[in-house]
Amino acid sequence: MTRLSVNLNKIALLRNSRGRDYPSVTEFAERFMALGAGGITVHPRQDERHTRRTDVEALSEICRFREQVEFNIEGYPSRDFLDMVCEIKPDQCTLVPDTVEQITSDHGWDIENSSSILVPVLDRLRGAGIRSSVFVDPDPLQVEAASRIGADRVELYTELYASSYHGDDRFTILSAYGEAVQAARLASIGVNAGHDLNLENLSEFLAIGSILEVSIGHALIVECIEYGIRNVVAEYLQICAENRTG
Domains of the chain: which residue ranges? Predict the structure, then answer.
């Protein structure tokens, strides 16, 4: 079964717009976990425009006592970010090549040209007992390179698939993700996925197999507004349960 990790950045963004703790990030984390979500994801940024360090610390405490729930922190591996991650010790840290100016993640790592940044970071995460994942485009060469430098997993950047879902090249693009997954199998590296996946496109994407975790935030929160949190989480969990990870 693929693990559903709910990204809470949009809850934090909504809260920040009013200057008080409403909606509460931790209360929504509790609700998602009570409904069966297997993970909580946050992507704290330097300007704290959504998730704050205090959120990360509070969520870590909540997740720590739930054996079935994993805590995933995403972000660019700056010194401050890594210090925070190694202090909090989440189950997983996903390394993303974001700049401060980016609205959202929009590309994966060029592993070979970024190895001088990534290798010492991966070593530090390993030493802290934190599973590592690196954000990559659906390119078998990038997947293989991630394995060579010692990453535990890759997270496939799925916007290319999501944006093509109603287009003529949809299945050609989906096949590229299948090739990336096959490369991961051969390289013995785990595969996560995320970005713009939603209730409409997730089932078809997971049918390529071997996806251990999907991290979904923006679409899931919008769908909760439209259809209700219980209905949406239940439908996501059903989709994740129907698709094999082996």
Answer: 3-242
The catalytically annotated residue of 74, 155, 213, 223 is 74
Query: For residue range 152-167, what is the model confidence (pLDDT) as tens digits?
Result: 999 999 999 999 999 9
Structure tokens at 26: 């931790």
Q: What is the pTM of this model?
A: 0.95
CATH topology of domain 3-242: TIM Barrel (3.20.20)
Using CB atoms within 10 A of its CB, is residue 116 exposed (0-12), middle (13-18) or buried (19+)?
exposed
- The percentage of residues in the chain with a pLDDT greater than 90, rounded to a whole number, is 91
Q: Which of 50, 70, 155, 195 does the annotation list as catalytic?
A: 195
* Bond before 77 cis per omega within 30 degrees: no
Active-site residue flag, 218: no
Amino acid 107: pLDDT? 82
